[in-house]
Amino acid sequence: MQKPASGHDHQLQMGVRRFGRVNWLGLATLARREVLRFATVWTQTLLAPLVTAGLFLLIFSIAIGPSRSDVMGVPFLTFLIPGITMMTVIQNAFANTSSSLVIAKVQGNIVDTLMPPLAPLEMVLGYLAGAVARGLFVACAISFAIALVLGQGIAHPLWALAFVVLGGAMMGAVGIVAGIFANKFDQMAAITNFIVTPLAFLSGTFYSVTALPDVLQGITRFNPIFYLIDGARYGMIGVSDSSPYLGLVVVSGVTAALCAVAWWMLKTGYRLKN
Description:
The chain has 11 helices and no strands.
């Protein structure tokens, strides 16, 4: 007679995870896929943002730069560099995760991500790895080009790195939430055009918030992207409108909250399994 399966064998037959607490292989595979997604089309994902950032700096320097006085004690063009760099980083980090999910949903292959033995947290981390990597690549490319052309160095490299990584993680988490929520490309375009872009442009990218009326200053300080821009400005040129420590706390808290929302969406299958 066949020996009955033990309780342990029965659990294995039912598909219980055999990878320990973390499926490192699955996590690394998802992260690698997300990195390869933007690396294989580098002219669109890496070169294009570099050209766009260069055009921003060129247009502002020609149109406003010569007649504009110093801002926060530095030349206007120098003041612009961190804001444009971080704006490019967050836009690309958001695009990486949101496009990955929306394309998978529209094409009907989202099941390829949901079926493997990956926990919700592992999926969040895998997607964020791609967003952070893309943000870092973009930031390094812009910083290298600026150093080469303008001779502009980085005042506090560790602070700059911290805010670039946090910016990529925060906007990558926003991209996961938006990508899960949106079922069509026009819904994603609406989120980008009416939420992400305005928050990026109205966060002190092109100006110091001290130039705003008190009411608008208060409103701006509720925008977490303001702390990303301001923190990057401190890291790159050594000046800021608020304390970088405060920015670090705010951005870390917002990133953690957004990651929790993304984790819940993936855990429950919200707008993914129905």
